[in-house]
Amino acid sequence: MNVQDRRRLLGPANASPIVFSDVKEKKSKKIQAKPDDEISKMFINTGLVKNCDGSAYIEVGNTIIQVSIYGPRPIRGSFIDKAILSTECRFLPYLSQPNDSISRLTSSTSLITNYNGKLNLSNIEQKISSYIESCFLSCIYLENYPKSSIDIFIKILSVDTNLLNLVNDVVHCCSLAMVDAQIESKDLITSGNLRYLKSNNHIIMDPKCKDKDKDITNEVVEEGKLDLVVSFMNSRNDEIVGFWCEGNDTLEDDVLEKLIERCNDMSKEIRKNINFYLIESLE
Amino acid sequence: MSSGGSDELIYEAKLSVLNRVDGSAQLSISSRKDLDEGELGIICSITGPIESKARQESPQQSNLEISVMPHIGVASTREKLLEYKLKLVLDRVIDSFEYPRQLIQIVLQILNKPNYEDDTTIGSDDMNDFFSLNDLNGCLISTYLALIDSGISMKSSFLSSCCIINSNNQLTTDFNKNDLINSKSAHLIVYDLRNGKCNNLIYSESIGEFDEQIFFKNVLDKCKKEIENLNTKVIKNCITEKFKNDYIWKA
Amino acid sequence: MSEGNGQEEMGSIRFPAEILSVVAPDLSLKRHLDLGLRPCLRKFHEFKNLTLNVKSGLSRYDGDVDGESVTDSPVLGSSVIKSGNTTVICGITGGIVEIANVSTTTTSDDHDDSMEYTSIYPVVEISRGKLNGAPTDEEMILSQQLYETLLHSKILPKKSLIIDNIALKTNDDTNNNNNNRKRYAFVLYANIQVFSREGPLFDYCYGSLVKSLQTVKLPFIHFTDEEFIINDNRKNGGNVKPEIICDSEAYNQLKINEENINWSLTFGLVNNDDGKETIILCDLEGHAEETCCKSLINVIIDKNLKMRYLNIVGGDENVIIDENIVLKTVQLAKNRVNNILN
């Protein structure tokens, strides 16, 4: 903190951050064995936050996501013929974000003592925001809301998974909030997420494991590995609205096709669950 | 400059110290017992009623914009809280329906603080900084004076006073930084005045451990006395002096 | 409404209750009070329901039974408060600061205890659909109020945060008894998230702060020697080379002054014009109540039902605040605090 922020109580400027030694692996987690072809259970709820137009809450394992949607609400200024969509994803300031080390390498504020002092969106937050934004841009009937804006606020309250798996949950949470806000859309977006291990041609559906930093920085390339999130509009001919792939290996066409197929299966499965929830909540 | 006060405190006050604003006042409060302590000095300026920004405008009443400047450095959240508390009192006192769609700007600059060590490291844990009752007291009295100087309509007169109960269970209005830190409880009381007498309680803040009975019997009485004293011995003279000066060319 | 026939009188407009409370909050409040109710449909002295959760799973040591399942979260203590629709989530994290070497020896000095207490640096964030990150006035005021109130409550002794025994992780123990070694202390930060902002926010935020503080656990500390590197990546990051490292599992419960644990309650005072009597409203809620109740009493009561803070705002000139009404309010507060804390 070079410049003292006078609008926040950030405490002494000479404080240094608490750094913990690594949690010993055996103790860190009771490894919950989930079969590789199974989707983990989630808890969903909508309409909890009252001072917005639509909200949703998702808990998957130890990952907790809350989304509030404000809008359609009037904008100031000149006339526009369709709604502006904006998305802001924020982690609670003290959470360590997935792939944190990468953003830390690139950001100038590498040494933050008081997490509360963080102001701008980190790289990861920006990436998630723009993924969600581009998914929903093609899904909402923006032209039905002239002179308006629709703002999606994503709060990650707790995170215990890898980046793309988190994105997967965020997509579902946003879709639910969209329904709660009753914004006219072409369809409800759901997505699938999987990890492809190239060496043994193995697919892990809904991978819940946390990435170690070294996996990303490629210091140790143990094996070819690809992470994939694909978002669909399953009731509209399985149109793809979003695609995000990260990994350290190349991807061949035929494999890609297969992976998208599997993502779609997963997406449909989740869609069924969400449909069920929504029908239930109507009664 | 009129000065005077109670047995324990000396107040000095002067109106119309700034000539480019609509109302201003300078106030200092110091201890009679211990003159080396230094004084609490505050200057207050009021501009208004003036045209308000569209964003701040309210259709039926005037809006208040209060800023407090600390004696060293720039304003922080501490001053924000002071401003908020000032606003709670002033909203009740200023006749805001008299000036619809207008803005009244109040700026307070703290000039001196008693017994203030010059260690100004940012974020230092100086307890004095977190007892803002004294500052609030000074701000309220000087704002009152400046309001009179500005001629802005008020629903009632008001004055404030603060006191502490020290570790020997004594009630006193004269205290320094250490007394404050070691006090059992500290109180700020604001009354509105009618015919020179305290009328209704309009604001109070009490920090520390204390008893309701003591608060109502001793604390309020002590502060009432201090306020009435301040009013008759200082404020009235001060205002008379101002009006003498205003009509200096008459007759 | 009737069809426009020129001279016909204007029909009355009817508003649903929730819209009336925004359009004409004073009218809405008055009409409800006349019925013996409040706009939020509670009785005058009825508090909102309140749920406290200190095992929210956010803290590092939350799932911990016997040192077996510590997570890698930096949160040292946390709590979640729900009241009505409002949810307040508080997480406490820490930092380490070098302190002057003298401070503990001054106990003989009659500079008594209050200097020996400290506070937490809180940042409150209220989610209300604003895009830019600058804190609003309300957030700033709440944060500052929390800081000052906790400090004056004398709950957190400075001594509890001082790090006494640091294990040295080097091989040579020769300079272990070095007297002029630096001394360190923890500083605590709180991040408070507010969802569905409604009602007396300060009370909820302060409650969540105090409750979280009660759960704070401070990790054990080691010095690092030259070779000790926490994380391969930090090498690339370059500038993280901590002198001090916290043990991932071992911890101490933070020692706080349990006797001074307290709770804040805010009451609104209104005067219904037909009677001279002043009505006390507990836990203001909703637009009509929050904008029309300008007279407020904020009381903080400790575990032993002693008053620790009293703030009276006589914002409404129709409400005369006398001894009677304050005592009544304080009594209400004491009963409530007794229920919550004991």
Helix/strand layout:
The complex is a heterotrimer of chains A (283), B (251) and C (342).
Chain A: E1 16-17, H1 25-28, E2 43-46, E3 54-60, E4 63-74, E5 84-91, H2 100-106, H3 123-137, E6 148-158, H4 163-180, E7 189-197, E8 202-205, H5 213-217, E9 225-233, E10 239-247, H6 253-282
Parallel strand pairs in A: 5-6
Antiparallel strand pairs in A: 2-3, 3-4, 4-6, 7-8, 7-9, 9-10
Helix pairs in contact in A: 3-4
Chain B: E1 2-5, E2 9-15, E3 23-31, E4 39-51, E5 63-69, H1 77-93, E6 102-112, H2 133-150, E7 157-165, E8 171-172, H3 177-181, E9 185-194, E10 197-210, H4 212-246
Parallel strand pairs in B: 5-6
Antiparallel strand pairs in B: 1-2, 2-3, 3-4, 4-6, 7-8, 7-9, 9-10
Helix pairs in contact in B: 1-2
Chain C: H1 17-23, H2 25-34, E1 50-53, E2 77-83, E3 86-99, E4 117-118, E5 121-126, H3 137-152, E6 156-157, H4 158-161, E7 162-163, E8 167-168, E9 183-195, H5 201-215, E10 217-223, H6 232-237, E11 244-253, E12 262-271, E13 278-282, H7 286-292, E14 295-302, E15 307-314, H8 323-341
Helix pairs in contact in C: 1-2, 2-7, 3-5
